[in-house]
Amino acid sequence: MRPQSTALLQWYDQNARKMPWRSPPHSGQQADPYRIWLSEVMLQQTTVAAVRAYFTRFTARWPTVTDLANADDADVMAEWAGLGYYARARNLLKCARAVQALGGFPDTYATLIKLPGIGPYTAAAVASIAFDEPATVVDGNVERVMARLFNIHTPLPAAKPELTALATTLTPQTRAGDYAQAVMDLGATICTPRNPACGLCPLREYCAAYAHGTQTTLPRKTPKPEKPTRAGTLWLARHPDGRWLVEQRAEKGLLGGTIGFPGNGWDTKSPHSAAPITANWQDMGSIRHTFTHFHADLTVLAATTSAPPDHGTFQPVNPENLPTLMRKAYDLALPALLPR
């Protein structure tokens, strides 16, 4: 084992973050592949702080992969509401059902990556953490640690292959799962994007960027183009009996598979160009929601009406189960639609 890996594991043994999906180092507990897989899917594009509550709810409701495989799609999408990137929730169900058909999780990277919705990162994470296969896990934290440790100035994303190759040279043959989590913990708590705590770092003596004084400038990144803005409208109609006019969104595309309010402009696939129902619409102002590739600036129109809609249906709505974009519109429109 290379000295960097040994030093990092010694640090991890004393400083491992406590996570509801983890087994503590040297505990003798085998990590549950279901919990590792679920947490890694949830953590994509999301923070640990945001995921904890979702993970706890999911595993309380569906404690095994078989439970999740047998779950109703709408129930899973509702529990996922607010985590964003809804294709992950759809792939979660596809993968759970594939695992159930296999009789359990495969135990190697080569077999895990064949499952629906599992890419190289997730396959490596489950293989190493749950089955201790020496698979190399590379996320943003790992890329940052490697860029600094080896003083790599090639900007991301072009540097990804080089950083992955360097990370592979440090992945040990034993305790691979602990090592993968140790690198991620180091990046999250010590080797942070801004103001890294080099004085506390177990890899300081091996760090080329620290030796050259470049650690705060790495990793370099190619500037991203400015996000475009799409303008549009959301129509929020409430029936006098308290139900809301909603639509089931298509499985593919933005917020796929979720319940939402009719709208246009923000989603290029939206077929609607006019209000979905005849009503006395009130302009409630606007909301902004940022997606990966664009900003959506949306006018929120609200009305109370029992007129038959051109599309969608009146249904009870639990705001906790709405995607964040729809929840913003709901919160803005609600005061005008409450019974007087």
The counted number of beta strands is 7
What general outline do the C-alpha atoms trace?
Answer: globular
> Overall mean pLDDT score?
92
Number of helices: 13
CATH superfamily of the largest domain, by name, is Hypothetical protein, domain 2
Low-confidence stretches: none
- Predict the CATH topology of the largest domain: Endonuclease III, domain 1
Q: Total domains, how many?
A: 2
Q: Which sheet architecture does the biggest sheet show?
A: 4 strands, mixed
Q: What is the second-level CATH architecture of the largest domain?
A: Orthogonal Bundle
Which CATH C-level class of the largest domain is it? Mainly Alpha
- What fraction of residues sit in β-strands? 5-15%
Class by SSE composition: alpha+beta
Outline:
By secondary structure, this protein is an alpha+beta fold. It has two domains: 3-217, Endonuclease III, domain 1 (Orthogonal Bundle); 229-337, Nucleoside Triphosphate Pyrophosphohydrolase (Alpha-Beta Complex), CATH 3.90.79.10. Helix content is 40%, strand content 12%.
Write up this protein.
This protein is an alpha+beta fold. The chain folds into 2 domains: 215 residues, Orthogonal Bundle (Endonuclease III, domain 1), CATH 1.10.340; 109 residues, Nucleoside Triphosphate Pyrophosphohydrolase. The chain is 40% helix and 12% strand. Strand 5 and strand 6 form a beta hairpin. The longest helix has 16 residues. The termini are far apart. The mean pLDDT is 92.
